[in-house]
Amino acid sequence: MSRKKVTILDIQKRKQTQTPITMLTAYDFTSAILVDQTDIDIILVGDSLGMVMLGYPGTTQVTMDEMLHHCKAVARGTSNAFLVGDMPFMSYQPDVAEAVRNAGRFLKEAGMDCVKVEGGREIADTVRAIVRAGIPVMGHIGLTPQTVSQLGGFRIQGKTAVAAQSLLEDALALQEAGCFAMVLEAIPATVATQISQRLAIPTIGIGAGVGCDGQVLVYHDMLGLYDRLQPRFVKEFGQIGKAITTAVQTYTEEVRSRQFPAEEHTYPMNEAEEAAFLAAVAGR
Questions:
Q1: What is the domain range of residue 15?
Q2: At what angle do helices 124-132 and 96-108 cross, to 10 degrees?
Q3: Which of 77, 109, 130, 234 has fewest C-beta within 10 Å?
Q4: Whole-number pLDDT of residue 154
Q5: Looking at the structure, do residues 175 and 259 belong to the same domain, yes or no?
Q6: Catalytic amino acids?
Q7: CATH of the domain at 203
């Protein structure tokens, strides 16, 4: 379908008009093309690629080089969706100047439209510096996979009144620091709704209820391509993994039974040339 490139202004307008924002991950050229052919608003090249694409046990093992590699591939396959590059663990936490340099690489080298960072008030100064450098930043609070060890595992956040209030303070601090949008992950729906209502910037939920300004899921999760981790908030909109397994098994069986390749999959040879060739090799 023909449509124009989605911009930050379009995303912010979605909140003003109460039009839910749609975001989905993509990690390579082919998936980017498929997602971008739809009406999706945002494509996130998430560090979750470490698990679903690279086989790591979590996201903390992902490097800058790996993120940039996948971001470049996605950018080549995308024309319309707004592109978000996930800054990997330890690419922005230790040093503000290094964080700005790394963030810049996502735009300059990898073709992203913005970067995403995880954390609350503790990274506000870093966010402020990145934004000051002219790089748009999407925040991410609640369950932050890069610090899952510190959180005690993949657990819902903001379950108590005190914890929920702390999340609100984080959200307000990140907005003040310059974030143009924010991911709210694995927090009670009531908390996410209250945060969304108090922010001027859009919120995008994942396991945070319908009260957010938009929703995001992992491509592999919603298509049934990855079953090693199945959070409660995931809905499978297709079971592509089973279809792939069935197709590969059918291919294997047809090759072994010599059903494939059939005549329609084979290149013919001119009859005269074929006869000449067979005559030439007959005695060899």
A1: 8-238
A2: 50
A3: 109
A4: 60
A5: no
A6: 185
A7: 3.20.20.60
Q: What pLDDT is stored for residue 150 in this prediction? A: 62
Give 168's pLDDT tier (boundaries 50, 70, 90). Answer: very high
State both tokens at 233: 């908030």
Is 240 a residue whose pLDDT tops 80? yes
pLDDT tens digit string along 135-162? 999 999 999 877 765 655 567 899 999 9
Is 1 within the bounds of a domain? no
Asked whether residue 3 is assigned to any structural domain, the reply reads no
Q: How far apart are CA 32 and CA 80, in angstroms?
A: 10
In degrees rounded to 5, what are phi and psi of residue 42?
-135, 135
Confidence of residue 227 (pLDDT cuts 50, 70, 90): confident
